[in-house]
Amino acid sequence: MFFTAFIIAFVKQWKMTLVLICIIPALGLPVVVTTMIMQKHEKRSLDHYAEGATLAEEVISTVRVAHAFGTQERLVKKYDEHLILAEKSGGVKSVVIAIQMFCIFFVIYAAEGLAFWYGAKLLVNGTITDPGVVITYHPLILYVYSVVFSSQC
User: Which is it for the CA torsion 109, 115, 118, 123, positive or negative?
Assistant: First the structure.
């Protein structure tokens, strides 16, 4: 479907398609970069959880020795350190996800604005003779198109 849509777009309106094809790298670059950062922090978070789980398992298996030497507080602090580090990595990952969502939606809405502007320019110049060739899916854009083009006719 992806390639078929491009073929149809190039056949119907090649100028508009060439202009709007720029959203592919604009969408891909932030997604790739933020995904790499998210993977790094997810791995760190899981490593901290694993170290904390290993510590807890060792303490539980030797609970008599830990109780005999009175090291419970120190072991709890070590376990808490692992949890705090995992929480920090998870927090960074959450911020990166938010940045990724911002980039995705910004590019999508900017592309809609670009399509509206360039499509209106092509229609006014006479390059597009049949505005039915331009197909959109967003109800607000359809409303704006109908208002703008009905006032032009």
Answer: negative
